[in-house]
Design a protein that fits this description.
mainly alpha; Cytochrome Bc1 Complex, Chain D, domain 2; 2 domains; two-stranded antiparallel ribbon
Length: 361
C-alpha cells in the first residue's frame, strides 16, 4: 500500500514540476549569450559510442556550465540548507559517495540506495538504479524532492535563488536575461553534468594508441578475462550495456528494483548495470553499497550468487551459479579495472566545488 501511495506522490510531484518547467519555456527566450568556449563543448571520444543526448535544445556553454556548477554545489537546494548535490556526489570519487553504503540527506536521514557515480551521463538512455528518470534534465529532481535526501521543492528553490543576488548575473550570462525559472535551473545543471566526460584513463590511452601507453602483464591478462567473463553486461568502452539485471545478490530481493518502475514481476530485483569507469574510486559497490572492495564483488560473482526466478541467465549456466574465477584471475581482473581510473577527471577544475562547503561532512 505504501509503495502505491509513494508512486502516486511521485507522479503528482513530477507533474507539478513539469508545469513549472514548461512555464519557464518561452519562445522569446534569447539564445545563450556566448558561444561555446574551448573545453566547454560535448566531444565524443574516439572509442565511445554516440551520445544519447546531444543538447541541441540546450547547447553547452561556459556560462551555462558555470551556473550549473554553482547550483550543483549550493546547499540552498536542500530544505535544511546543508546538503548540496555535491555533498554526496564527490569529485575525488568520480562523483560517487565513497565510504557511505547509502545516501545521507538532510538531518542525517538515510536513503534507500547507494549514491551512483556521475560520469558520461550524456551517453546514458535513462538514469537512477531503476531507470526511473528518462531525461537528463530531470535527473536532479530525484535527490531534490526525496525526503531522505534534499527534501526540497522546486518552487522553494526558485524563491531562494531569486533572493540571492549573485544568481541573477549568472542566469543572465547563461541565458540572456536574469529570469530565474525551473527550466533554466535544470538546464544549467544538465549542461554541467553533461560535460562530465571521463575518457582519459590508462585504458583509454592504450586502446586509442595515445602517449605510448601499454598495459602490463597482469593488466593484459585482466583485460582478456574481462572480455571473456564480464563484457556481456559491462559492454563497449562505457563499460555498461545500460540494461537492468538481477545479479544474484538476494534470493528474495527486499528492494524490488526495476519492478518499482514497470510493475512487472519479471523485473524484480533488477538494477542498472553500472559503468565500471573509475570503479577503483567509487566504493562501496552495488545498489545498496553492501560490498566494500572489488575483491568482495568478484567473490560474490565467483561463489555467492543467489538463485531466484529473475536471476540473469548469464549467471546460471551449465547447472552452476555465478562466474568461475580463480584467485589469480580475480587479481588480474582487478589490475585491469584499475586502468579505468581517470585521474584528470577527478581533479578537473571545470567540475570542482566553487563554494568550498558542499563536501564538508
Amino acid at each position: 500500500m505504501n509503495t502505491v501511495r509513494n508512486r502516486w506522490l511521485l507522479f503528482w510531484s513530477l507533474a507539478a514540476v513539469w508545469l513549472l518547467y514548461a512555464g519557464g519555456c518561452r519562445p522569446s527566450d534569447p539564445e545563450p549569450a556566448t558561444p561555446p568556449a574551448p573545453g566547454y563543448e560535448l566531444t565524443v571520444p574516439r572509442n565511445f559510442p554516440a551520445p544519447k543526448f546531444t543538447f541541441g535544445e540546450n547547447p553547452i556553454t561556459k556560462d551555462g556550465v558555470e551556473l550549473g556548477r554553482f547550483l550543483f554545489f549550493d546547499p540552498r537546494l536542500s530544505s535544511s540548507g546543508t546538503i548540496a548535490c555535491g555533498t554526496c556526489h564527490r569529485q575525488l570519487f568520480a562523483f560517487a559517495d565513497h565510504g557511505h553504503d547509502k545516501s545521507h540527506g538532510v538531518n542525517d536521514r538515510r536513503g534507500e540506495r547507494n549514491t551512483p557515480a556521475l560520469q558520461n551521463l550524456a551517453f546514458m538512455p535513462d538514469f537512477m538504479w531503476d531507470g526511473g528518470v528518462t531525461h537528463i534534465d530531470f535527473s536532479p529532481l530525484n535527490a531534490i524532492q526525496n525526503p531522505a535526501e534534499m527534501d526540497e521543492t522546486v518552487a522553494s528553490i526558485l524563491d531562494k535563488l531569486k533572493n540571492t543576488p549573485a544568481y541573477k548575473p549568472k542566469f543572465r550570462a547563461a541565458f540572456g536575461n536574469d529570469s530565474i525559472t525551473s527550466q533554466r535551473m535544470l538546464r544549467a545543471l544538465s549542461q554541467f553534468m553533461g560535460l562530465m566526460v571521463s575518457s582519459n584513463s590508462k585504458y583509454d590511452n592504450y586502446v586509442r594508441g595515445e602517449n605510448g601507453i601499454a598495459l602490463n602483464g597482469s593488466e593484459t591478462a585482466g583485460l582478456r578475462l574481462f572480455q571473456q567473463k564480464c563484457a556481456s553486461c559491462h559492454a563497449t568502452d562505457l563499460f555498461t550495456d545500460h540494461s537492468f539485471r538481477n545479479n544474484g545478490l538476494d534470493a528474495t530481493p527486499a528492494d524490488l528494483g526495476r519492478e518499482r518502475i514497470t510493475n512487472n514481476p519479471a523485473d524484480r530485483g533488477k538494477f542498472r548495470v553500472p559503468s565500471l569507469r573509475n570503479v577503483e574510486r567509487t566504493s562501496p559497490y552495488m545498489h545498496d553499497g553492501r560490498f566494500v572492495t572489488l575483491n568482495d564483488v568478484l567473490n560474490h560473482y565467483a561463489s555467492e550468487v543467489k538463485d531466484s526466478p529473475t536471476l540473469d541467465p548469464l549467471l546460471k549456466q551449465n547447472g552452476r551459479l555465478g562466474i568461475p574465477l580463480t584467485a589469480q584471475e580475480k587479481q588480474d581482473i582487478i589490475a585491469f579495472l584499475k586502468t579505468l581510473t581517470d585521474p584528470s577527471f577527478l581533479v578537473d577544475k571545470r567540475f570542482a566545488d566553487p563554494i568550498g562547503t558542499a563536501n564538508q561532512r
